[in-house]
């Protein structure tokens, strides 16, 4: 199926190129003049900015190797896979309307047979600075999630997000979101989503998200960022997979469609259970705090997340989870991380010959209180992850990354009795 998509796309591109050669000459329009840009993808727009579109994408190729707790038997395994392979199309029509269509061909977050729509949305921007968006998109929850996967510092986002994976994932559902700014320092968003999970009557699970950011310092190399998040969903009369699991920063143990460690890949089970029956749980809520500070080439950031899953049946107990991370990064070549209100952006190399070099360290800590999980039922299952890595921004399109990951688990182990593991992951990224 994907071969057919790529073949069709290649044929169309070839036909366009041939046509351009055969009919080269003056291009005219019946309206405003057109501006064409080819740096960072293909962008075409009218000079009056009423209409325009852009075609871009990202390709992330990963290789990882890992052992001990990361595998069932403790022996070393590896994985080579496309983490993301996005084709991205966005545009503006009649000045105030905008659209985004992003499709991921990698299978990594879809299935072994299909890719998935990362986003397919329409926005109305006529109420500036307020924007209204509808369609399929990820609800907002957290600073690292708001930052594009192209420009997050480590290859994988922090493990604390594994505790609340539903908060910032569209799960093939649809939603509506209002987002905007107030002055130069305040940003906020609120959304309501209908997920692809249904209750016993066939009604979809509804989810509410809200995020607020205050950034009195909001320029690249001069950032002070504070944020708060809240998300809630109603699981009444809904059967669902209630497992709280984490890859502990090593995607290769299970890639949801890409090449991975297979049956020998081991993910940490912190709490919950699969196939929970309808009526077992009711309210599922999470809140989070985020903070960041950047001065020149140095930046520090962190987030704290807490989740409460309330039981609706005496046969089940409430589940409580909490997690946090702290990260420091420094650009050896002096460039500052880009920043747009509410999120970090790319590092743009000043020297086109040597590029920009960044080193970073991140510590993740996650734990879940669930007496039915763990070696000792009276204790929480806890995971701790150290991430030490380097990023080379070769130019504005190419980024090469490598990271060493060390994990330690309390009150849980693999079949071999291991409660710690380490691994190494490298990535080659191209953005257009």
From TrEMBL:
A Pfam short name: Porin_O_P
Transmembrane regions listed in the UniProt entry: none
Top-level taxon: Bacteria
Presence of the UniProt keyword tRNA processing in the record: no
Signal peptide residue numbers: 1-24
Name assigned to this protein: Phosphate-selective porin OprO and OprP
Keyword annotations from UniProtKB, A to Z: Signal
């Amino acid at each position: 199926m994907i071969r057919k998509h790529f073949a069709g796309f290649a044929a169309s591109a070839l036909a366009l190129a041939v046509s351009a050669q055969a009919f080269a000459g003056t291009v005219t329009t019946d309206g405003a003049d057109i501006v064409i840009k080819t740096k960072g993808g293909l962008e075409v727009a009218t000079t009056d900015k009423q209409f325009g579109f852009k075609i871009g994408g990202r390709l992330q190729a990963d290789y990882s190797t890992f052992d001990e707790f990361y595998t069932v038997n403790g022996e070393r395994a590896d994985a080579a896979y496309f983490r993301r392979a996005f084709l991205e199309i966005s545009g503006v029509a009649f000045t105030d309307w905008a659209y985004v269509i992003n499709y991921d061909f990698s299978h990594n977050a879809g299935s072994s047979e299909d890719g998935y729509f990362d986003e397919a949305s329409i926005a109305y921007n006529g109420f500036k600075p307020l924007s209204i968006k509808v369609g399929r998109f990820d609800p907002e929850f957290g600073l690292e999630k708001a930052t594009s996967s192209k420009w997050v510092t480590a290859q994988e986002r922090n493990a604390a997000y594994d505790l609340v994976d539903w908060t910032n994932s569209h799960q093939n559902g649809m939603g509506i979101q209002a987002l905007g700014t107030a002055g130069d320092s305040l940003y906020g968003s609120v959304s309501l989503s209908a997920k692809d999970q249904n209750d016993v009557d066939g009604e979809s699970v509804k989810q509410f998200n809200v995020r607020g950011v205050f950034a009195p310092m909001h320029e690249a190399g001069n950032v002070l960022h504070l944020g708060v998040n809240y998300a809630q969903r109603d699981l009444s009369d809904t059967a669902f997979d209630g497992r709280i699991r984490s890859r502990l920063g090593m995607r290769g143990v299970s890639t949801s469609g890409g090449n991975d460690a297979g049956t020998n890949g081991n993910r940490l089970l912190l709490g919950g259970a699969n196939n929970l029956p309808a009526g077992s749980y009711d309210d599922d809520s999470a809140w989070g705090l985020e903070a960041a500070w950047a001065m020149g080439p140095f930046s520090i950031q962190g987030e704290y997340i807490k989740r409460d899953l309330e039981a609706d049946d005496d046969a089940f107990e409430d589940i409580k989870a909490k997690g946090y991370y702290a990260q420091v990064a420094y650009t050896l070549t002096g460039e500052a991380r880009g920043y747009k209100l509410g999120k970090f952006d790319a590092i743009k190399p000043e020297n086109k010959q040597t590029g920009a070099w960044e080193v970073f360290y991140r510590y993740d800590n996650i734990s879940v209180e669930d007496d039915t999980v763990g070696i000792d039922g009276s204790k929480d299952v806890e995971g701790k992850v150290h991430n030490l890595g380097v990023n080379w921004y070769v130019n504005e399109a190419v980024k090469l990354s490598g990271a060493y990951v060390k994990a330690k688990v309390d009150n849980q182990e693999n079949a071999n009795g291991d409660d710690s593991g380490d691994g190494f992951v490298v990535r080659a990224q191209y953005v257009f």
